[in-house]
């Protein structure tokens, strides 16, 4: 995919690190500047999640077929569900002249790195796996098994973040100290 316009932003970090919350703040503060690449997922919607806004909720069958038709720039299996970024989702943001923001996992990042999108990469590092666990428990969206799967994935993602991202800090994090997370640019 040849990319024109402002460089996309790829945000990555373990489930529960606070990516979604930080992005909500970003979009609320700069609605004309940044646009969200709405991923497809086969996981069930959580209370409050809106189809087409937070995710395009779909089935494994429909998504596998769409991937085979070449409709996705990347896809990944995370905690027994498929997630993916469609070409249409990215085009929708770019056509509005906004910075396209992708919230994707480590596998998605590795795939995007093989494309010619040339994005900026940001990793949200949680304070510890213990803190992640208590956040995910409090959120109440996971079963014992899916919580364990997310924590196993988190350990791998933290290692990946430590290896491949340089320590940095950007200003809009300062308005969100409650999340106790660091941004790596
Ligand atoms: N298109 C995609 N490709 C790869 N990974 C994706 C994609 N869309 C979402 N993900 C990742 O899948 C993981 C699980 O997302 P999900 O929304 O189920 O959990 P979450 O705990 O709410 O994530 P968050 O950390 O954003 O709060 C997250 O790390 C998210 O970044």
CATH architecture: 3-Layer(aba) Sandwich
**Total helical segments:** 6
In CATH, what is the class? Alpha Beta
Oligomer: single chain
Domain Guanylate kinase-like: 6-185
GO molecular function: ATP binding; GMP kinase activity
Family: Belongs to the guanylate kinase family.
Protein name: guanylate kinase
Can you tell me about this structure?
- This protein has 185 residues and is an alpha/beta fold.
- The chain has a single domain, classed as Rossmann fold.
- Helices cover 36% and strands 21% of the residues.
- Strands 2-7-1-8-9 form a five-stranded mixed β-sheet. It has a four-stranded mixed β-sheet with strand order 4-3-6-5.
- Helix 5 (129-139) packs antiparallel against helix 6 (144-164).
- The longest helix has 21 residues, at 144-164.
- The protein is globular and about 40 Å long.
- The model is unreliable at 171-185 (pLDDT under 50).
- Adenosine-5'-triphosphate is lined by residues 15-17, 19-20, 39, 43, 74, 76, 78, 83-85, 103-105, 108.
Short description:
The chain is α/β, with parallel strands linked by helices and 185 residues long. The chain is built from six helices and nine strands; from the N terminus they run βαβββαββαβαβααβ.
SSE topology sketch:
Blueprint (H helix, E strand, L loop, with lengths): L8 E4 L6 H11 L4 E3 L3 E2 L14 E2 L2 H9 L3 E7 L2 E6 H8 L4 E5 L2 H7 L7 E6 L3 H11 L4 H21 L17 E3 L1
Parallel strand pairs: 1-7, 1-8, 2-7, 3-4
Antiparallel strand pairs: 3-6, 5-6, 8-9
Helix pairs in contact: 5-6
The chain binds adenosine-5'-triphosphate (ATP).
């Amino acid at each position: 995919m040849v990319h024109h316009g402002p460089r996309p932003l790829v945000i990555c970090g373990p489930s529960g690190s606070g990516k979604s919350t930080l992005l909500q703040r970003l979009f609320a503060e700069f609605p004309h500047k940044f646009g969200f690449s709405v991923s497809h997922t086969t996981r069930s919607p959580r209370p409050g999640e809106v189809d087409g806004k937070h995710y395009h909720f779909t089935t494994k069958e429909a998504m596998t077929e769409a991937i085979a038709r070449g409709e996705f720039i990347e896809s990944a299996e995370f905690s027994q569900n498929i997630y993916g970024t469609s070409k249409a989702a990215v085009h929708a943001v770019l056509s509005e002249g906004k910075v396209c923001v992708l919230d994707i996992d480590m596998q998605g990042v590795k795939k995007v790195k093989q494309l010619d999108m040339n994005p900026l990469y940001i990793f949200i590092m949680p304070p510890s796996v213990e803190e992640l666990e208590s956040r995910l428990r409090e959120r109440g969206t996971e079963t014992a098994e899916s919580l364990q799967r997310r924590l196993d994935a988190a350990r791998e993602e933290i290692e990946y973040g430590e290896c491949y991202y340089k320590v940095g800090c950007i200003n809009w994090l300062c308005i969100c100290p409650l999340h106790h997370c660091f941004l790596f640019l």
